[in-house]
Amino acid sequence: MFKRTKILSLGLAMALFTTQAAWADITISPLGTSRPAGQESQVQSQTGMNAGAQSPDQVQPQTGMNAGAQSQNPAQSGSRTDAMPGTQTGTLTPSASYSTKEPVSLNTSNGAKGSVMKQGPDVSSQNAGGQAGLSIGANDGPGGSTGTAAKAAPGGTAGAAAGAAPGGTAGAAAGAAPGGTTGTGTAAGAAPGGTAGAAPGGTAGTAMATDVILQTPEISAQAAVVYDVTHGKILYEKEADTRLYPASTTKLMTALLVLENADLNSTVTFSKTAVTNLESGAVTLKLAEGDRVSVKDCLYGLLLKSANEVANGLAEHVGGSISGFADMMNKKAKELGCTGTNFVNPNGLNDPNHYTTCRDMAKIAAAAFANKTLCKIGGTLSYEFPATKNAAARTITPGHKMLYPSDSRYYEGIVGGKTGYTSLAGNTLVTCVEKNGVRIIAVVMKAKSTQYTDTKALLDYGFEKAAADTASVAAGNENSLPAGTGNVSWHKWIHDGTSWRFELADGSRLSNCLVTIDGAEYAFNTEGIMLTGWQKSGDTWYCFKENGAMVKNGWEKDGDKWFYLGENGAVVKNEWRQDSGKWFYLGSDGAMVRNAWIDNTYYVGADGIWVQQ
User: Fold this and answer.
1) Tell me: the pLDDT tens digits for 561-579?
2) Does the active-site annotation cover 248?
3) Which of 214, 449, 496, 535 gets the most CB atoms within 10 Å of its CB?
């Protein structure tokens, strides 16, 4: 089928190859029985015998990335110029190594034995010295496709994109890598580096064995959820997806958006709409049109007093109008993974189109209480609100009774919470508690004065179940610490409802860095969120699996193009590679070449495999 004017024997090809000049030209010619004039492209590699110019004839298949190969931007379309964290172009080196499986002494002055800087190099378009870093955010991959990375199986080998595998035999499993190797993958829901059912960073079999049989709590409220934020698990649910009125628990979303989009020292000027767009009996701080209050004071009024006109004023200040702010609320809800939520106002007053679910509210609460400023404001037991037109300065206090140590309903370890009530919503209550390194959120909706007894039962059950069902590092190793360990803690994975983060033993969290955790490399952006998908350092692409681990020595697919990630995790370019006995050529952009002649000698077909003639 493929006729050539000249056919070189493998021996002759080898001889010619070894005598090439130090800078050899590898010519790639598109499909055709002879090289079409004017349609060729060239790939420069260093010496003819190095890894970057390896021939199918040679006997060194699984070599790593050619350090000297000419580096060319894999895909210009949609690529980002911002950068995070990096050292030299094309080379990413972990700045530190951590383990979740060994205790860390807290007796040292910096709080964590052996810990290093939590942040990596400067996060700008280029690092000091003009060295590009690792780009963050949603990148188009090296194949130019929209979105993040090929859907590699978490923890699996080789690429796992859908579709027939290049080089795969008929009937090969979807997701097989070039050469027909199928990714093994870890079950969905596993924590970074972990296996389904294991604690974050853990492996199967690390969970505590237990004979404890927990009795499911009896909840009077119509709907409820217990969410283990630390391990990203729902521990209990009752009508978790039923759409109900959230009442003033809505204000958690309002506060979160204000903190993300406004300066605490800026001033809110209250409009007539803000102070009059209320229903009868709504809680207020008696603000009037023209009152000017700082955003900071307004947030205290919002979360402690639950003042509804304050919510309106903040919404107008941030969103331009109440409806504009509602659009922002709905966008944020979708970003957090909410599927049964729609907001039309910032305060939660009755509206048939204003609703959420217990499951969605748990996600919103997890994000809200991940904000330290919100926790500080919401957990304040007494605050002096400034004088306004209709009222002198007054002391405001929170409505959540579990916050007060002197109250019989107080719950140890409480981080914060929000109450709510309307005639249609009934009693709603959101509560966040952290104990023994585990953070749990309880959500109760449509209760009839049982919100506190229901919440206590939910929290008690949640902490018992978390201790029994997970391999929490603190709980799982507490009784097996080495003698003389003293004051110790643990590095651990944290899930905030939407993203994975890594918390060190001293309580600080990693950000803006590439580190090794339990033997695998992970990257974190400036906000401390673990990165996944395609990321770029200078002109070099890297890929992180869905479980966060950097892909090494494996194939990944982006769009319709296959790429090979080498020993150091970088996309390999200008190199022959062998997989399952089949040879493939990776071009100057790193993509596997198809339907072309390589060096006017070797032909690769539509599946990218070298056709031996």
Assistant:
1) 999 999 999 999 999 998 8
2) yes
3) 535
